[in-house]
Input
Amino acid sequence: MCTFQTLSSVYYNHWGVSCAGLQNVMFLISCYNVFFCTFIVLIELECMCLISIVPLMKWWTLRGTSLVFAALLASHTAYFVHSRTWQVFQDIASISLGMCGGAYGLLGICGGAYTEKSIMLADLEAERQREVDAVNKRWESARSEI
Output
């Protein structure tokens, strides 16, 4: 955390390291976190356009991991906000995201494994059906040539 002491309009922390670069990095991380949280919200709304791009987001354990990752990003950026109210809000938000992510992970390991297994089996069955259809199509085309 930076304790700001102005010395020729450059901010230094108590170790004498410039905080200006660190604030820019934290700004980029917070922008990335906003993008990542928007992605999570769209996944939670079961937006099929995103789930078709990232089919693993159907899995509860991966959703939980992404929520915990977003919580860790949010918890570090809370200390670069100058308002104590916003720091508390961001701390509560990151703790809530972490708890939701932990619950998703726990449910994914305990009960969601059956759902994940059924999704994997459905995907495997769909792939098998596509292969059978392709073989049948080749067989019919070869048979019609005779």
Notes: The mean pLDDT is 76. Residues 5-110 form one domain. The radius of gyration is 24 Å.
